Amino acid sequence: MRVVIESSDRIGISQEILAIFAKQAWNLKAVEITSCFTYVHVEYDALTLPLIRECLASIVGLNSVEAINLLPSEQRESHLQALLDKMPEPIIDVDSNGLILAMNKASHKLKPSVEPVLIATDYLGKPIETFISQINQAMLTNTATSQAVTIQGKAYILDISPVLTNNSSAVEQDKTGQVSGSVLLFRSMNTLGRQISLMQSHQEHSFDNIIGQSKSISLIKAQSKRFAELDLPVLISGETGTGKELIARALHQASSRAKAPFLAINCSALPEHLLESELFGYASGAFTGAQKGGKPGLIELAEGGCLFLDEIAEMSSYLQAKLLRFLQDLTYRRVGGTKELIANIRIISASHQNLAKLISQKIFREDLYYRLNVLSIELPPLRDRMTDMSLLANLFIENAAKQVSNSQQTEITKPKLTEQALSLLQDFSWPGNIRQLQNVLFSVVALNNGDDICADDLLQVLNKHAGNQQLSNDTGIQTIKDWSTAQAEFEAKLLEHLHPLFPTTRKLAERLNVSHNKIAMKLREHGIK
User: Fold this and answer.
1) Where are the transmembrane segments (predicted)?
2) Which residues, at least 6 apart from 387, have a Cβ–Cβ distance to it below 8 Å?
3) Dihedral, CA atoms, 251, 239, 379, 309, nearest 10 degrees?
4) pLDDT, tens digit, for every residue of 126-162?
């Protein structure tokens, strides 16, 4: 039976209470004393609450005696255990000798499935090695460490955090080296992957975030929604700045893997050896400077989710061959490792280059192309979806106004786009596509003084983005001599503007919807090389 005895704050009253319990020869299992309260856990077969009250009635200052379910320390321990059991990752608390003090329910999965139902109390007070053979007391130092461990064929990052015996600072801890124990946290690769995924992007990505009502974009969204249901590799092609990663994230968000990590890497951003270790990870001691315990790669961290390989055409021949080997059966080894690992991920790749041309030039592997190109999506350039310009421009202006307001800590009114300015945006070729449009409009909003965005405001920024292709809002009507001269001047300016963006006669002819022979003739006529 557990009881709480409330009394006045009188010196010696607790000793009087305990003396009566001893006189009655009642077995005291635990006693806790605070100001005005004495908590007692007592065992006696014939013990009742009225009997306890009767025996204690003679004590001066006694207020009440009530039965309770748990002592304060037991209640705290129960709440702490409930909190630990809610944690999805295994947590084990050990003392300075490596003996287990507590563990949560998630830690039970660290034992073999063939073992009978785990009873955690069977391991309390026993060395940590008896529960997990990969861990020993030598690993429990006075400094926090992290290392990769594999338990029952599953990889974890083990964080070992020392528990200080007092409120000493970290500097004092290093001097004394005294700790009362350690807390072991086992983070699964899936959990790490989700954390990295959130760091890469802080917002949700769905097909609703893809702005556009043009026929081409509507078709892309409908096609992508169907592909999201199929757990197969997808290859996304399109010019730079057309939103390939946005489509990839929307595909993942609409798939059955949506709750698992989405990790992205640009294959052109890292040299070969770094890209290899980033993708496949490395084993302990794989190379000079390698992290102790090894390091998981993105393939391992994306477990259950999706890995987006941007600019796949930039991958070296060696890594192309290694990626092909991985795609055949989704098995791989860490760099410098010997253990065969299995991945459960979906691969989405993207490139702005013509992979068919690279295959013919023996730069990109044809067999890898067919592995990646099971499902394909080709994104249209911005110049082929000018009907979406108004929607895109208004969205980017609104976002830019919010960013400027946040940075200046002053609310600014969203500027409006005049019809002439919108026409100018629709007439520009946008070699950088949507990304370039977004940057241009951000610059315009940042320079805006609260007025509507007119054509002249855009010209100032667009001319910087056009390089040598200077644009003008002056029609020059007063200087026109005759029809043929005006037509020739217009042709020359048009060709000078578009030819750097479409450097071959065939591409330029396709852009202007005429024969390439006519383009070649006009280039010669106006002396454009």
Assistant:
1) none
2) 213, 214
3) -20
4) 888 888 887 877 778 888 887 777 777 777 888 888 8
Q: What spatial distance separates the first Cα and last Cα of the chain, rounded to whole Å? A: 100
Q: Is 25 helix (H, G, I), strand (E, B) or coil?
A: coil
Q: Which ranges of 88-163 would DSSP assign to H, the alpha helix?
A: 128-131
Tokens for 284? 């302990």
Nearest-5° Cα angle at 256, 250 to 259: 75
For residues 416 and 48, what is the distance between their CA atoms, to the nearest angstrom?
82
Range name among 254-268, 315-329, 421-435, 452-466 with the lowest pLDDT average:
452-466
Q: List the beta strands (DSSP E) in 283-413.
A: 306-310, 331-332, 341-342, 346-351, 375-378
Domain span including residue 136: 87-188
- For tokens 């993942």, the residue is 252
Contact criterion met (CB below 8 Å) for 127 and 106: no
Q: Percentage helix, strand, coil, to 5, in the chain? A: 45, 20, 35
The mean pLDDT value of the chain amounts to 84
Q: Which of 26, 53, 74 is the last residue of a domain?
A: 74
What predicted TM-score, i.e. pTM, was given to this entire model?
0.64
484-529 pLDDT, tens digit each: 777 888 888 888 878 877 888 888 888 888 888 888 888 888 888 7
- Together in a domain, 223 and 330: yes
